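Quiz preparation item.
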């Protein structure tokens, strides 16, 4: 499990932690529920289009494993939030239940892997209740079935670190960032100066997404330490996604100012970072940009959109800096757009030289 997936999962555990400990302390409050709803909407937005199959079995690829895992955890916490809210309104309803899912070596096998305790059981056995903070538990017993409190306490152990490694969350976040850039490019190309800020929600959707994802990325990849990582390639991906999130936020901020008529088309611009074969130039976040006016000046929507699309990928790549020329003059033929995995290979290699 890479660091960013672990942080997503830990965030879900934090919500469960509040639920269970508030119940045990008899101090329920629904102030955090809106935080969960925002987080849930954000993470579900990342995952919702990523599943190839709705079933998890021996044929499930590693590329789908992280999606299923986090969606399962999200579902469990959502159930627990619902029970918590009902209990907050009426604390005599101690028959309400708290859930967790049980993962065995074959995956999430069946619904009888979903086990629960009532709030009454939790109040009578706080130690047992605390074991439900993790929304997913792991059992080495492939034939495990929940059937008693004994199995809850003794058979189930948290072994999340040994579950199938997850390698695709970075790509999914990166694709979401590309999508926001693409929406901006489309609007500028198609509607131009006639865009109506009262009808546009691109920036609202982005800020909700960004506020959920950025603190996790920043905490995980704030300091460049690729050469010290056990999996430097995955860490390189994470650093690039963090840089991409920052540059897309700049693009969205600029777009918001433009549709609110606070900057002109001749000033507003879309940016992208440039990664060279020897790293980011001078090891800083160097970017190139295109003015909105340059996009809107094209004779047709097709030409305008083609220009804007050169900037939907947050990070571009140039193989040879020496032959690039003036970095401050945009030459759309010089940089190419690579998959995040390919960019990470370059970045990992350059960082190891430092």
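Solution:
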């Amino acid at each position: 499990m890479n660091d960013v997936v672990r942080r997503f999962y830990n965030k879900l555990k934090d919500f469960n932690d509040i639920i269970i400990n508030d119940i045990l302390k008899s101090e329920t409050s629904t102030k955090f529920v809106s935080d969960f709803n925002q987080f849930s909407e954000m993470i579900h937005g990342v995952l919702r289009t990523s599943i190839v199959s709705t079933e998890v079995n021996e044929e499930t690829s590693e590329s789908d494993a992280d999606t299923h895992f986090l969606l399962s955890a999200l579902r469990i916490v959502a159930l627990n939030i619902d029970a918590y809210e009902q209990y907050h309104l009426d604390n005599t309803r101690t028959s309400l239940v708290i859930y967790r899912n049980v993962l065995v070596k074959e995956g999430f096998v069946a619904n009888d892997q979903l086990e629960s305790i009532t709030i009454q059981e939790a109040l009578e056995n706080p130690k047992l209740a605390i074991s439900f903070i993790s929304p997913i538990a792991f059992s080495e017993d492939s034939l495990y079935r929940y059937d008693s409190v004994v199995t809850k306490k003794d058979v189930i152990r948290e072994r999340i670190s040994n579950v199938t490694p997850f390698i695709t969350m970075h790509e999914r976040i990166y694709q979401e960032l590309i999508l926001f850039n693409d929406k901006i490019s489309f609007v500028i190309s198609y509607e131009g100066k006639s865009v109506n800020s009262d009808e546009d929600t691109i920036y609202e959707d982005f800020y909700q997404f960004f506020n959920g994802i950025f603190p996790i990325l920043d905490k995980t990849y704030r300091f460049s330490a690729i050469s010290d990582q056990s999996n430097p390639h995955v860490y390189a991906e994470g650093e690039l996604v963090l840089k991409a999130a920052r540059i897309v936020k700049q693009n969205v901020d600029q777009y918001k100012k433009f549709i609110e008529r606070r900057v002109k088309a001749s000033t507003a611009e879309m940016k992208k970072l440039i990664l060279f074969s020897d790293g980011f130039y001078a090891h800083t976040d160097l970017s190139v940009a295109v003015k909105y006016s340059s996009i809107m000046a094209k004779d047709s929507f097709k030409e305008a959109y083609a220009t804007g699309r050169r900037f939907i990928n947050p990070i571009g790549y140039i193989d040879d800096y020496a032959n690039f020329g003036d970095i401050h003059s945009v030459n759309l033929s010089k940089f190419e757009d690579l998959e995040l995995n390919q960019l990470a290979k370059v970045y990992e290699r350059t960082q190891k030289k430092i």
